[in-house]
Each structure stands twice: as C-alpha cells, then as structure tokens.
C-alpha cells in the first residue's frame, strides 16, 4: 500500500516557490523547508518538466483522487 502525502502539507512546503519551477526546484524547496520524506519522494516522482504554479503541481500529484 502506497503512502501519499497530504495535499495541504505539500502546499505548505512549497509556499514561496518562484514559478515556473522545475521538478528539481520543487524537491529542493521542499527539502529546504523540512518536508517529510513522503513529500520529497512524491515531488521527486513528478514528470521532469516546468510547472507554472502550485495548482499544476497539486493536479499532477493528486489528479483523479
């Protein structure tokens, strides 16, 4: 059973990110903000592209939940 991060926690750890941002930018920002491994791992699993804003990140992570 996979463990999924809380969407609100993801948003909290990405607050202040300058968009557009790459996957690596998002991972680095989450690490800098002390995000739990589940959040960092989820972000690291995103497709390697540029994200125009937090809505795109959340949609990519949680899409059809």
What percent of the residues sit in helical stretches (DSSP H or I)? 40-55%
Number of strands: 2
Question: What is the multimeric organization of the chains shown?
Answer: single chain
H/E element string? Answer: HEHHEH
Count of alpha/pi helices:
4
Average pLDDT score:
92
Per DSSP, what share of the residues sits in E-state strands of 2 or more residues? 5-15%
Largest sheet: 2 strands, antiparallel
Strand order of the largest sheet: 1-2
Over the alpha carbons, how many angstroms does the gyration radius reach? 11 Å
Low-confidence stretches: none
Shape: globular
The figure for the number of domains is: 1
Distance between the termini: 15 Å
Structural class: mainly alpha
Please give a handful of descriptors for the protein shown.
two-stranded antiparallel sheet; globular; 52% helix; 4 helices; 65 residues; mainly alpha
Fold and architecture overview:
- The chain is globular.
- It has 4 helices and 2 strands.
- With 65 residues, it is mainly alpha-helical.
- The chain has a two-stranded antiparallel sheet with strand order 1-2.
- It is 52% helix and 6% strand.
- The protein has one domain.
């Amino acid at each position: 059973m996979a463990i999924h991060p809380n969407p609100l926690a993801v948003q909290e750890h990405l607050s202040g990110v300058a968009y557009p941002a790459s996957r690596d930018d998002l991972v680095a920002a989450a690490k800098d903000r002390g995000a739990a491994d589940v959040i960092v791992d989820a972000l690291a699993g995103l497709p390697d592209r540029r994200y125009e804003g937090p809505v795109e990140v959340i949609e990519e992570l949680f899409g059809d939940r």
